[in-house]
Sequence to fold (1042 residues):
Amino acid sequence: MAGTRRFALAAAAAALIVGGAAQAQQPATVRVGVIQGLSGPPAITDFGESYLQGIRLALKDHEARNPRTKIELVIYDDEANPQRAVSLTQRLIQNDNAAAVIGTVNSGNVLAFAPILQRARIPLVAGPAIATDITQRFIADRPSFIFRCSMVEQFQIDAMLDWGVKTFRRIGLLHSTTGYGNFAAREIQEGLRRRGATLVATEAAAPGLNDLTAQMIRLRDAGAELVLNFHESFELLYRPLPRINYRPAVAGNWGLSSLKVLEIVGKEAIEGTVMGQALDLSDPKARAFDERMRTEYGAAYRWPVVAALGYDAGQVMFRAVERAGRPDPAAIRDALETLDGVEAVSATPARPFSPEDHECLDREHVFLGVWRDGRVVRLEPR
Amino acid sequence: MSPGPSRRLAPFGWLLAAALIAAWPSLAPNAFFVHLGQTFAYTAIAVIGLNLLLGLSGQMSLGQAGFYALGAYGSAITATTLGWPLLLAMPFGVLVAAAAGVAVGLVALRTRGLYLAMATLAFGFVVEIWAQRAVDLTGGTMGLFGVPTLDFGNPRNTAAYTFWVAAGLLLLVQIGSDWIFASATGRQLRAIKESESFARTVGLNVPLWRTAVFAASAMLAGLAGVLFAHQTGFVSSDAFSIRLSIALLIAAVIGGLGATRGPLLGTAILVAITELIAGFHTVGLIIYGGILLVVLLLVPEGAVAFWRARPACCGAAPSTRRFHPHQVASRLCRWRAVAARAWRWQACPSPTPASRRCGM
Amino acid sequence: MGATNLVQLLVGGMAMGAIYTLTAKGLFIAHLATGRMNFGQGDFLMVAAYLSLAALGLGLPLPLAVACVILALGVMGWGLERFAVRPLDRFGTGRAAGAHAWILTTAGVALIVQNTVELVWGKSSQYSPPLFSARREEVVTIAGAGFFVEELLVILAAVAVVGAFYWFLFRSRWGKDVYAVAFNPESAALLGIDVRRTVVMVWVLAALLAAVSGILVGPLVTVQPHMGLIFTVKALAVASLGGFANPLGILVGGLLFGVAEALSNYWDSAYGDLYPLLFVVAMLVVRPSGLFGEARADVR
Fold:
């Protein structure tokens, strides 16, 4: 009797221990929500799809390293509509139990759902939105759950204006009438004033326009030697130039580094165009990444710098999730803030964030690129 | 026209709806469904307005997003920049939209058909462009922040309160719509839709009616905009594009134009499709287009036809009691006849002993 | 603004206006005969632009590429009428409750078409090779002002197509059939006109007009899958401006609209897209049936 009972007790204890261990070894699945602009005009979809390509490759690499934590991406398309973006955020938080979110293209959309995520205490890695104050708005709320892995508009504009004011006397601006364009216009005018210069002409254009002849005629008649291009249809500015006999230098934000723009505008027309950059293709790591993306996605891969930042955003997020080990938003946030040893493809440093700085790319990591012979390389200061 | 029994039973339907509204925040699987309920409620209000305009008085409007935007901005700007209390700001938004409705209605008096569609389309674009460019006032595409939400001092229950306000208003608007459709007003509007010159000869003041309906539908679209603005506390001009006008039109037509229950059905379908395709970013539009095609090819009068269809071959039900076996059988026969119609693409299945038995 | 600038803007505006005219004529003819139109006319234009750039990219000579695109769009137009518009009539036409269903079925087809193009070619903008010149940047200078060869030839081609369209409508037997059906389908049937065939022909013709405008528009603008809706809207504006009853009005309306667009962008670039719309609204208030439309009394 006593032997059987003892045996039964031992068996039960063994079962419990084995069961408990099995339980502990069962990997927890962390859901990471991704909201991107994946439909609509190319000005949106090129950004959204490229960033997503980077995130997906980062997930593949993460899984290849055999991690403890299983990550599931829940991908939604916000159609560049802020109402959809907010609705999808609610869906991720309440219905899908996402522990973290990455997204989106429109800065307006990010500013719409960032407060919701901050209130719900769920970390956000924003991107590829570039509005300057996305993380700044929340950095004072300790702890801030809002991070960003993308170009910051202010940094591009600063770099561009520093170079532009030194190299040219007459600078003109073409901007779109959307929030992005107006924002950029304001920052440029501010920046130029600080540097003691003014614009010789400012032209606006609606986002859906087909033809910029009228605006370019005005810029030519004002004598602009450098035209700052802040319109979403990046290639549109080049089209009327041959007909109106005008060949200014062009500089703009990172949109001008898209391979699609090269294809549409042609190598000769785009030669010498300058843009904000964070990916130096002469760097071997960047070149290796470029090759891998081409193999993985073929012709669908068209924007190296945005894909690179998507890759780094994914890396950063997945490493943080791995360190946290469980679907705990607060733990993921802390892991993000103290992350170290990141081998980024873009210019993101090994330790991207700190309690005062939630930006992947800081001022010193943004530089100017230029199109030379069909490739974007670093612009060497003269 | 709705037969007697349906009209007598209407108040029970409303009471049932009120009970459902009250219970929804507790019944919903999670808070996201309460958010969906809010979106459904105010979108349905706008679609009811479009149904009155297009379905009842026959005036096409492709610019409802313009009135929606005016309502949203009217309320958001006064509540945020001017600091008005919500009880003043929200009606003000509705008033702005109504005033615009009167203005557009007056212009609409001179145009008909597709020209009216173009004029309203242009109006929608003008409002969207103004909202996008007048950045100092409206915040443009970067948006207006800090719009007060309906929390009545208790922020934890904001979602439920917003839902109750929106759904309560929807119920009132639906009751109004039911009343209009069944009343003399509805008949007069239908007469104007059928033939304006005839309506004039029997003494109807056609311009007044047409403008009044425009103002009413604008007011409802404005109310929807007001609720939208206060749902998340953020208003951006990106939300008021032509896609919104088209979505409202889709909801009105797919539900059933000219039927008072059509908008509810149509909005439910619209919200369901939108949430369904959210995860399908490569083939989402094919699914959306496919659903539109399939539903309208099956029932061109709209989804409400599944309830309304009464092919003569099914005969009239002898009993007026709702759950009498004859009623049930007749309704089943109607459903089968609709399906048979749709499948065989004929107006009515040829008389067979089975269908004669339907009439009983 | 100098004379050179003015002329350049005018020519550019007229080229785009010619495209809008062709697209609007497609809407016009469908609406004339059946009271309905293809809500996805702009998306058909987009498909034609994509097929054209694919055909030219494969190295096909221009006439063959044009023939292929026109054939493909003709089939699409036939399919649209057969499967998305005609079934709506099976319960009787006219003032039935389903009178607006065609909007959604044609819009549904437009969405499916757009998504299919996205799946095949991707969502980005595409480079469209020039039709008539060796390089896109080929510029010809007339009296000191530079013009793209493409633009000038597009205007000429559009005028030629409009001319052919007129001949078809007013000179040929089929055109008279169309007007007879437009006036009253029942009496047309009684007169021995095959109403069904006329209706099918009208929808195919509308698709062919979209094909031609799509082929011509490729080199002028950036081709992307999302471009359809704005062309549909502008075509509707042009058709309203010119009057849905008169093809000459649409030509004038289209050219006016294109020029208005170009000039208003010059004068005030921040609101350049607003003024043409205001212009259309103002015209509709002043002349409710369009520039050349006849005011028809409402005697139903």
